[in-house]
Write a structure and sequence with these properties.
Elements: E1 2-4, E2 20-24, H1 26-30, H2 34-49, E3 54-58, E4 74-77, H3 82-86, H4 88-102, E5 107-110, E6 125-130, H5 134-137, H6 144-160, E7 163-166, H7 169-179, E8 186-188, H8 203-213, E9 220-223, H9 232-241, E10 248-251, H10 257-267, E11 274-277, H11 285-291, E12 294-297, H12 306-313, E13 318-321, H13 326-330, E14 335-337, H14 342-353, H15 356-370, H16 375-393
Parallel strand pairs: 2-3, 2-5, 3-4, 5-6, 6-7, 7-8, 9-10, 9-12, 10-11, 12-13, 13-14
Antiparallel strand pairs: 1-4
Helix pairs in contact: 2-16, 8-11, 9-10, 9-14, 12-15
Length: about 400
């Protein structure tokens, strides 16, 4: 089923489009975190800076889903047959290829590791974005069923994709190592973050949010799922190690790992130094970043680490881990500590928190570093890659 959206300019559809581009938009509509943010960001950016193309969003269900700016410039395609309406995941896995041909796509882009079965038999050139291979690098963090399913999905997409996008050099390296992919088939194209992080929140908005959540005047900030890999406990351990007298405000979905953190908090009498928020609206986060004294993200491993970029855009000093993709994002604007080294993380936290000049310097460098990931340049790079893959397909 196809539903037309408003294309903004009235003559948009009358102009000859350069390409007809389709996206697997499951995550864009129904995922509010990492992969969903990536999908929405790219769709928004492409439709904004390259309205000369036609864009199609393949959506599992006709349910409303998440609203975002790019919807104004796209056609939404959802299952039309009864069987695919009842089992929409089957449509996404295989049946979607019929619609890809019917819509005359030039490019079909799987935005989150997957491509439909039979994509190589369609007339469209296929692109897949690979975000990470964390489940291969750290199998102990995932159960067997999860690993088996995603290893099969990754392998299929990497085998049949005409082009592969990796969101960082680290992700590219892992795809090469764990799936034996020719590195020449992979193009690294970075992502950006929501534009709401580009502008300063008003004093009035900050105060409103501070009162709503009872936020302290100064705090260490964390954003992300509260899970072992992201190592929020390490921030509390470093705080105790350095005797830091500043509360931690953590925003993110909780897992059982939070119980372990709360056990440490109770043991060390830190109840008045910890705040956990699980239902913060996206629109409220920029003000929170901007009110924070420092942003701490001591994760073990990420494909990109978008909260780092959100903090850089917000002018918030960033402390994160050495290695993985983190230096690619943070550059010389962030401060780094070895993952799992509580003493080093404590030293870095203490150094930054005690030096307002260093905080100001990091904020300025962070804003400059963040400019490397703005939409206009990144989408230009992606469209150039689309054109290259399309010409090779033809």
């Amino acid at each position: 089923m196809t539903s037309k959206c408003s294309f903004g300019q009235s003559n948009w559809l009358d102009e000859k489009s350069l390409m007809r581009i389709g996206f697997d938009a499951k995550r864009a509509f129904f995922n509010r975190s990492g992969l969903g943010n990536y999908s929405r960001w790219y769709i928004d950016a492409l439709t904004k800076f390259h309205p000369e193309n036609e864009y199609f969003l393949y959506k599992l269900k006709e349910d409303k889903g998440i609203e975002f700016e790019g919807l104004k410039h796209c056609e939404i395609i959802s299952p039309s047959s009864t069987i695919h309406k009842v089992w929409p995941n089957f449509w996404r896995t295989k049946g979607i290829t019929k619609d890809i041909n019917l819509n005359g796509l030039d490019i079909f882009h799987g935005l989150s590791h997957e491509l439909p079965i039979g994509i190589h038999k369609t007339k469209a050139a296929s692109i897949v974005t690979m975000h990470d291979a964390i489940f291969m690098r750290f199998p102990e963090l995932y159960d067997y069923t999860y690993r088996a399913i995603f290893k099969k999905k990754y392998s299929h997409a990497l085998k049949y994709a005409d082009g592969i996008v990796a969101i960082s050099e680290q992700s590219k390296s892992d795809i090469v190592d764990y799936f034996n992919v020719d590195p020449n088939r992979i193009k690294v194209i970075y992502q950006g973050c929501n534009q709401i992080y580009y502008n300063d929140a008003t004093i009035e908005l900050k105060e409103k949010i501070r009162l709503k959540y009872n936020l302290p005047e100064s705090f260490i900030f964390y954003v992300g799922t509260i899970e072992p890999r992201k190592n929020l406990l390490g921030v509390f351990e470093a705080m105790v190690q350095a005797k830091i007298d500043m509360p931690i405000v953590a925003v993110g979905r909780a897992t059982k790992y939070l119980d372990k953190i709360k056990g440490f908090i109770t043991k060390n009498k830190l109840e008045n130094k910890a705040m956990f928020l699980h239902n913060v609206e996206t629109e409220e986060l920029p003000a929170m970043y901007q009110m924070a004294t420092v942003f701490a993200y001591p994760s073990l491993f990420e494909g990109f680490g978008i909260p780092i970029l959100e903090a850089l855009n917000s002018g918030t000093p960033v402390i994160t881990s050495k290695g993985s993709c983190f230096p690619e994002v943070g550059g010389n604007a962030a401060q780094y500590a070895q993952y799992g080294n509580t003493e080093e993380l404590a030293e870095v936290l203490e150094r930054v928190l005690s030096d307002s000049n260093l905080q100001n310097e990091m904020a300025v460098k962070g804003k400059q570093q963040a400019l490397l990931f703005r939409e206009e340049e990144v989408t230009k790079e992606l469209l150039t890659y689309y054109s290259k893959i399309l010409s090779q397909k033809q």
